[in-house]
């Protein structure tokens, strides 16, 4: 039968989600009048309400029950807000239900979504007796079961989110659409609602973002010590400065922007810079953080320690040089107690001191041997009366040692007696058989040096005539080696060829010359990279560099090339004209400064005794390493060198001077610091000198 209900402007709706979202559902007003009602849920609020008396509520509910009982419809008592329930109120509500024909009671919490379905299913079972009886579970037991169910659903949902969301820039709308069909998503939303699902997603995204920022922070902090090393390696420059002044100093450094980036917005971890994966420069505002300050202090301490260690090395060396206890050949174990103190042990390992001591010993031993050799020369009369085989008897050796024993230079080698005796025997052998092989200064004996000098400069007449013929045919030909690394040699060769005519001719001062180029970029000791080949005789070498590494390659290659020709008659590569040029790095403003590279190039040019050209300005064409003016300058220099060497001198001039004979007698002591080259080179460089008829290797 229909039951009349008064419903003045009441709304009815079915909410399948959290409370507070009523506006998301269809708004339908309950009609007044008679409705078909099959049962009732009699709700009792068991929470502690403001300005509300529970006993009064219970009286109201009791009166309401009396009215509902007249309908003969099933009634279930529902205790609401049990999550905030008062124990006495719950107990009184159960007592009320027992007093009213033992009504069934369901303890619920709409906020926690506990036993809500159970309340309705209990009423349905009372209405439809054919359904199985529903087991009523107390609130706290139901809450425990639901908590376990929610926790399991949450774990599965978080797993789903972590599998789908890998980037902290993902949006909820996009991810929500992807997860709609996943049971893990559906189960969690059913239990906890969409808002909590979104909240867990946002927490995951936030965690991803923080992890990403932390990885970037660690990368920046790992780079920071390298930046300090590159920009502020000098302790004197920063030791007296505050942190603020150090930051200003960093900004003035030429390579500052290679290491740092100054952002318009700060802090860096709240800007879009965190997602700029191509730019790995350090945000400058990171310097304001405590980890960066700690790294700067560590850098400062490192520089101070390095200075202190260098001071300890110098102090130790001075100790060695001034200590009377350090004599040639004295073992480290004996010397250590005389020269070491506590400060030395605090700053350096003993192995470093041992290395310094070993080098010092080598120096003083060599000096002591030289002084002992001088001593033997001063006592030359001791070695006059010996047998022809120059083997002194035991008695004679005793006499020599007795005479020399009082000399300090003899005593200096007291701990090296075997070497001292060997020097005496070697000296005796030299006195009776004076050759360059028995010379105490071997292998730098003056005889050996002069022989090598003459043999390296001398050209046989047949070879000279052959060279003259070769020169005649090559008078208008320039053979140029281009030495560079990482493509520099090949690129310049191509640029020079672009300036030549179709048949590789180049115009210098109005005259046409045939230009042959040999770019070399590898190991010059390999035949494929040799300066000289059977068909290529170089007239000069153009050396290119644009960095410290390429400059080192040039120096090593020149030295290897010169070493390979030492002792050979055709060793003109030793005096091959060289030109060193710094080329600009294309499109690269970082790296060594131009000023530093110029200084290094000038020093190397002085060492190699070659011409150094200033770096080229912009070339005549796009991407030119060297401009045409510099190329012409190099080629003119090679032509001048060819003329000075007189490669085309006629044989008639030699024939005319064949009867001229200039004899020079030189007396030099082995080990004399004066160089024989300074005397002989002006003569040997003459194109008219020839070998002596006596056949001596030391005369021309």
TrEMBL record:
GO terms for biological process: regulation of axonogenesis; regulation of cell size; Rho protein signal transduction. Keywords: Cell projection, Coiled coil, Cytoplasm, GTPase activation, Nucleotide-binding, Repeat. Gene3D superfamilies: FF domain, P-loop containing nucleotide triphosphate hydrolases. It holds the Pfam family RhoGAP-FF1. Residues 472-647 form the PG1 pseudoGTPase domain. This is RHG35 protein. It comes from Chroicocephalus maculipennis (Brown-hooded gull). It is found in: Cell projection; Cytoplasm; Endomembrane system. InterPro entries: FF_domain, FF_domain_sf, FF_RHG35_4th, P-loop_NTPase, pG1, Rho-GAP_domain, RhoGAP-FF1, RhoGAP_pG1_pG2. Residues 150-207, 309-363, 365-430 form the FF domain. It comes from the Eukaryota. GO terms for molecular function: GTP binding; GTPase activator activity; GTPase activity. Residues 293-320, 358-385 form a coiled coil. Residues 663-700 form the PG2 pseudoGTPase domain. The keyword Coiled coil applies. GO terms for cellular component: cell projection; cytosol; endomembrane system. PROSITE patterns: FF (PS51676), PG1 (PS51852), PG2 (PS51853).
